[in-house]
C-alpha cells in the first residue's frame, strides 16, 4: 500500500489537535498585564504542548520520508500514536487550569510516555515491514534519545506527587532534547 493517505490523515489529525488546543485558550477580560497573569499556567502548558505536537509532526514527517509503503499493521500503529497525541489537548488544559498540580502533571506525563511508546511501536512496525537494512532502521539505530526520554518521563511522573513543578521541568527538558530536529533520517536519505 502507498503511504500517501496515512500521511494526509496524520497531518489532518495533528492540525486538529493544535486547533483544539488553541481554542481552549480563553481571552482575558480586561486590557492590563494583571489580567494576563492568571493565564500564565494555561499559556505555559499550551506552549509546551504545542512544541511537543510539533516535534511529533516533524519526526513523523521524516519517518514517513524514509519508508516507501505501509500495511495494516502500520495503519493501526499510526492510529495508536494519533490516539495518544489526541489526548494532549485534554491533559494540557487540565494541567494549565489547575496550575500544574500533582495529578494533572502526572497524567500529562503518562500521555507523553504513551505517545513516545506509540511512536516507538510505529517505528518498529515500519522497520519490520521494510527490513533491518532499510534506511529507517539504519538511521534510527539504538534509539538512545528515545530511551532517555522515556526514563525522564517516568521520573517526571514519579516526582509529580511531591514536586509537580519539577515534573513539568523534566517534561520541558525532554522537549528541549527533541526540539532540534532529529537529523539522522535526513542524513541517511541524502547519502
From TrEMBL:
It is a multi-pass membrane protein. Keywords: Ion channel, Ion transport, Membrane, Potassium, Potassium channel, Potassium transport, Transmembrane, Transmembrane helix, Transport. The chain crosses the membrane at residues 6-23, 35-55, 75-95, 102-122, 150-180. It comes from the Bacteria. GO terms for cellular component: membrane. Coiled coil: none annotated. GO terms for molecular function: potassium channel activity; proton channel activity. It is found in: Membrane. InterPro entries: TMEM175-like (IPR010617). The keyword Lipid biosynthesis does not apply. It catalyses: K(+)(in) = K(+)(out). Its main location: membrane. The keyword Transmembrane helix applies. Belongs to the TMEM175 family. This is DUF1211 domain-containing protein.
Amino acid at each position: 500500500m502507498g503511504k500517501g493517505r496515512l500521511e494526509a490523515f496524520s497531518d489532518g489529525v495533528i492540525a486538529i489537535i493544535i486547533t483544539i488546543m488553541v481554542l481552549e485558550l480563553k481571552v482575558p477580560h480586561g486590557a492590563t498585564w494583571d489580567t494576563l497573569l492568571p493565564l500564565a499556567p494555561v499559556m505555559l502548558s499550551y506552549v509546551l504542548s504545542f512544541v511537543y505536537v510539533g516535534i511529533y509532526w516533524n519526526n513523523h514527517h521524516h519517518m514517513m520520508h524514509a519508508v516507501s509503503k505501509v500495511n495494516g499493521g502500520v495503519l493501526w500503529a499510526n492510529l495508536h500514536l494519533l490516539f495518544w497525541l489526541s489526548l494532549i489537548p485534554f491533559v494540557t488544559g487540565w494541567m494549565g487550569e489547575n496550575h500544574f498540580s500533582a495529578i494533572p502533571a502526572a497524567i500529562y506525563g503518562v500521555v507523553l510516555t504513551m505517545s513516545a511508546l506509540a511512536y516507538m511501536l510505529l517505528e518498529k512496525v515500519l522497520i519490520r515491514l521494510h527490513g533491518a537494512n532499510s534506511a529507517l532502521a539504519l538511521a534510527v539505530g539504538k534509539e538512545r534519545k528515545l530511551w532517555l526520554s522515556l526514563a525522564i518521563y517516568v521520573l517526571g511522573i514519579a516526582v509529580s506527587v511531591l514536586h509537580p513543578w519539577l515534573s513539568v521541568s523534566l517534561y520541558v527538558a525532554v522537549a528541549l532534547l527533541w526540539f532540534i530536529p532529529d537529523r539522522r533520517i535526513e542524513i541517511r536519505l541524502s547519502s
